[in-house]
Amino acid sequence: MKTILDTLEAGTTWLEKKGIEDARRNMQLMICHQLDCSKIQLYTRFDEPLDESALAPLRVMLKQRGEGVPLQHLLGTVEFYLRDFHTDARALIPRPETEELAEILIKRFKLPESPAILDMGTGSGVLGITLAKEIPSAAVTCADVSTDALSLAEQNATALDAQNIRFVHSDLFSQIEGGYDLIVANLPYVPETDRPSLAPELAHDPDLALFGGQDGLDIIRTFIQEAPSYLNPGGIIALEIGIHQNEEVEKLLSATGFTDIKTYPDLSGILRFPTASKS
Ligand code: GLN
Q1: Cβ distance 24 to 7 under 8 Å?
Q2: Average pLDDT, the chain
Q3: Which family, according to UniProt (predicted)?
Q4: Same-domain status, 97 and 31
Q5: Which DSSP letter does residue 205 get?
Q6: Pick from 146, 102, 89: which is nearest to 122 by CA?
Q7: 34 Cα to the center of ligand 1, angstroms
Q8: Domain of residue 253, CATH code
Q9: Which residues are known binding-site members for S-adenosyl-L-methionine?
Q10: By residue range, what is the domain housing residue 109?
């Protein structure tokens, strides 16, 4: 009978042939998911045989992963700021760099005592829910144009028992009323021209969450122009953007009258998180 180690090795080789990056880690996590154990526990169980009842669902998962279904959709969860969030095709899969944006906001910005926070384009809710949990005195509003995304975000807020949070179905600011101390937004920013060269996994993210017109900045342009009307004096705006978009976004922020404009790099050095204040 095949052991866990045999299965790990055979699955890794198969995923490598299919061109999947980090094939071994992918296979480990799929086995852990199937056996409901941690990666550490898996190492201690390498010699254990796997029977058909465990192998059959693993084969299905492996086949889907080989076809480019993202690992996060197969596992159903993703860790963000040390919490597990459900993820599926209703919204963008949370990315590690967005976690860095949460960290910058939590650790480097001084917010008023009980801040009013808006997460515009909340998707799965990772930013808004993380801010609500980390800043219990905050009142957080999560907005999205997608009702699918909102249903996922609400599910995550319930699972994580975030209570200082509400959800609004809104096309950018159309259903929002003002008075925020912080508006954070991970809006779609991928240029339409990049579509042919994107990794196959991105086909599983909703188009609505990814693409922002020819240069990627269509939605961000409108967002920046409208944001000041919804910010308190001294309020902060913080965004996530793509590679090489920082100069254009900084220009937009400055033309709209924002001050203290600063773009923070992500861990790979890409200028990824523009921030600014309303004077
Ligand atoms: N970071 C994502 C990607 O390029 C895009 C996310 C977004 O458009 N907000 O894979």
Answers
A1: no
A2: 97
A3: Belongs to the protein N5-glutamine methyltransferase family. PrmC subfamily.
A4: no
A5: S
A6: 146
A7: 29
A8: 3.40.50.150
A9: 121-125, 144, 186
A10: 92-278
